[in-house]
Amino acid sequence: LIHDKDRKRLTASASRSSMNSEDLLKNAFEEEPMKQARFKQYVHYLKRGLSFPRPLDLTTLEWEQELSDFQNILPPELRSLLPEVRMRQKPLVRIDIAAPIADVLKSKFTSSSGASSSSKVSTTPLLLRFAL
Predict the structure, then answer these.
(1) Domain boundaries, the chain
(2) Which Pfam families does this UniProt record tie to the protein (predicted)?
(3) What would the pLDDT profile of 35-61 be if each residue is shown by its tens digit?
(4) Which tens digits make up the pLDDT trace of 75-87?
(5) Cα dist. 28→16, 46, 110, 117 in Å?
(6) Is the dihedral of CA 89, 94, 99, 100 positive or negative?
């Protein structure tokens, strides 16, 4: 159904666009190697469907600016993943609904420090017990 010339033109343009996006991802921030490394990590996290946490050496304002830089430079196939990653960041249940359920569950279980003193377990290592 597609003419041979058109097919060749489509494959050539597709290969050019994929090469351009790969080059763009590899050399997006050549002048800033730390930012380039963070961008590579950001893309890696994005491909896995995770949000990239803010690095400790950046302030919140710097990180928000860097995130907008990263999102502006992303190719369309990766940019389409952003809404799903944002949706995964949100909690499944609102905190006002989850808090009472968590309290009920906490009351059902006891911690190991609250165990009764009548059930004493030997703390001597197994090899020492046999040597005695």
Answers:
(1) 1-93
(2) HTH_TGH
(3) 999 999 999 999 988 888 899 998 999
(4) 888 888 888 888 8
(5) 17, 16, 53, 63
(6) negative
Pick the residue with more confidence: 95 or 123? 95
Which pTM value belongs to this model? 0.54
Residue type, 40: K
Separation in Å, CA 79 to CA 82, 97, 107: 6, 33, 45
List, in sequence order, the alpha helices (H) in the chain.
Answer: 4-26, 33-47, 60-73, 76-79, 82-89, 95-108, 126-131
Whether residue 88 contacts residue 49, with contact meaning beta carbons closer than 8 Å, is answered with yes
Q: What sign for the dihedral angle of Cα 89, 67, 19, 77?
A: positive
How many other C-beta atoms lie within 10 A of the C-beta of residue 87? 8
The SS3 of residue 118 is: coil
Please tell me whether residue 78 adopts helix, strand or coil conformation.
helix
User: Which letter does DSSP use for residue 94 in this model?
Assistant: -
Q: Which of 108, 45, 107 is nearest to 71 (CA)?
A: 45
